[in-house]
Amino acid sequence: PVIGGHSGVTILPVLSQAIPSVQFNDHDELKAMIHRIQNAGTEVVEAKAGAGSATLSMAYAGTRFVKRLLSAMQGKPRVVECAFVKSHVLDDVDYFSTPLELGPEGIKKNLGVPDLNDFEEGLLRDALVELKNNIDAGKQFADDFKSS
């Protein structure tokens, strides 16, 4: 699963919970993989020399999520997807991406933050500082938009 937020260090890939499991040769290889995941969108923009973004990736992710949500709404059991939603799984932030069990009415259950290893716990601490700022900026944007 990938939990947290939507950009940079707020994106927290929980590689310790990957299925199938994944192993890295050393800590530097793990850190490099996490960095690539966290900065994949930027990597695409740079590869396109600023002439585009990772829209195909976003479209694929959105399509996958909607298909899975529709399956759950039609009664398919045990549909789990990660999504960035208003939640109280952590005290520090009002919104957070976690695995969600989806059902006929939408979110059936927030499954919370998966078990994290010590390294991932450190990434979470780093992510929360930036994520709180992102959420505050998003709320301010929404308030300003409503006022205009």
Characteristic terms for this protein:
148 residues, alpha+beta, 3-stranded antiparallel β-sheet, two-stranded antiparallel sheet, 5 strands, globular
Can you give me a brief rundown of this structure?
The chain contains four helices and five strands.
| Strand residue percentage | 15-25%
Rg: 17 Å
Quickly count the helices.
Answer: 4
Distance between the termini: 38 Å
Shape: globular
User: What number is the mean pLDDT?
Assistant: 94
Helix content: 40-55%
- How many distinct beta strands? 5
Q: Helix/strand-derived class?
A: alpha+beta
Textual characterization of the structure:
- The protein has 148 residues and is α+β, with helices and mostly antiparallel strands.
- It has 4 helices and 5 strands; from the N terminus they run ββαααβββα.
- Strands 3-4-5 form a 3-stranded antiparallel beta sheet. A two-stranded antiparallel ribbon has the order 1-2.
- A hairpin with an 8-residue loop joins strand 3 and strand 4.
- The radius of gyration is 17 Å and the shape is globular.
- The N and C termini lie far apart (38 Å).
- The mean pLDDT is 94.
List the helices and strands and how they pair.
Blueprint: E1 2-4, E2 11-13, H1 27-38, H2 40-47, H3 55-73, E3 79-86, E4 95-103, E5 106-110, H4 118-147
Antiparallel strand pairs: 1-2, 3-4, 4-5
